[in-house]
Design brief:
globular; Rossmann fold; 8 strands; alpha/beta; disordered N terminus; single chain; two-stranded parallel sheet
């Protein structure tokens, strides 16, 4: 157990180091997005987004923690834009205040998770979309559970892929990665944001009452009637135990195969599972 703990903490340090280098790495990968970037503005919030394909709306959320942005979808274990835009209307955006992205807005220290959910729902309102499905990688997991909690009548089905969760053996891994990666890069871009502000924001997001999926309680997950397909992972910031606990608790949840990222064949199998799941829960046009 002690060796496992050391391995987890060492891996967490590696994740933090990669997060610190991520803005420059992602900046070199801006190609590959198929759509035209547009902007949705509400007050002092400005969200860069693309809207590609036709069909029932599918909100896509890139991984990368607080550095989540559209380009991250292209380099995910599978590219959901390429896979699903022939069947669904795919909508995706840079996360507010992702340093290498084009979305910006206030750092809402007292409500970090909800501020991003405001952006997701606000974008769908802007596009005139009432009901939609959602697929999100990494930090998209907590965002999805927050969408299900706040707008259960709007989210038809959800796919958390490699979802973020709280790992008791490494309780600060998400905080540490954002502290060394996201925060310094954001402060370079936004002189109005101070170290104290980022510290309080990250503390509220990842350390205050940290547990489970961060944005929803186990009681809520037990009561959730939305169909959910979980694609589990097991790295320090994506705990397998939490992903599978959501599957065991949510009445209409199921899991993909695991592990699934190790080969093209298993990735293709999971993509087929996602396609079947989304197709099965897509509302039938009247």
């Amino acid at each position: 157990m002690e060796q496992n703990r050391r391995d987890i903490l060492a891996a967490g340090a590696a994740v933090a180091a990669m997060a610190a280098a991520a803005p420059n790495a992602i900046a070199a990968q801006q190609t590959g997005l198929p759509g035209t970037t547009r902007f949705y503005e509400k007050g002092n919030v400005k969200i860069a987004y693309q809207d590609v394909g036709r069909g029932f709306p599918l909100l896509l959320i890139a991984g990368g923690g607080l550095q989540s942005r559209m380009a991250g979808l292209v380099t995910s274990p599978f590219n959901p834009i390429a896979e699903f835009s022939n069947e669904f209307r795919c909508i995706y955006a840079d996360l507010r205040n992702a340093p290498a992205g084009e979305s910006s807005g206030p750092l809402e220290i007292d409500r970090p998770w909800d501020s991003h959910t405001d952006d997701h729902l606000g974008l769908m309102d802007h596009l005139g979309i009432q009901r939609f499905m959602v697929l999100g990688f990494c930090i998209g997991g907590p965002f999805i559970w927050n969408l299900l909690r706040r707008a259960p009548d709007r989210v038809v089905a959800a796919v958390p892929a490699q979802p973020v969760g709280f790992r008791p053996e490494a309780p600060t891994v998400l905080y540490d990665g954002s502290k060394t990666g996201w925060a310094p890069e954001l402060m370079k871009k936004r002189p109005d944001i101070t170290e104290d502000m980022t510290e309080r924001y990250l503390t509220r997001m990842y350390r205050t009452n940290a547990d489970f999926v961060f944005t929803a309680t186990r009681d809520f997950v037990r009561s959730c009637q939305t169909p959910v397909l979980v694609l589990p992972d097991d790295v320090p910031s994506h705990p397998y135990a939490v992903a599978m606990e959501t599957v065991s608790l949510a009445p209409k949840a199921e899991a993909s195969i695991y592990p699934w990222k190790e080969s093209k064949d298993t990735i293709a199998q999971v993509v087929r599972h996602v396609r079947t799941f989304l197709g099965a829960h897509q509302p039938v046009a009247a």
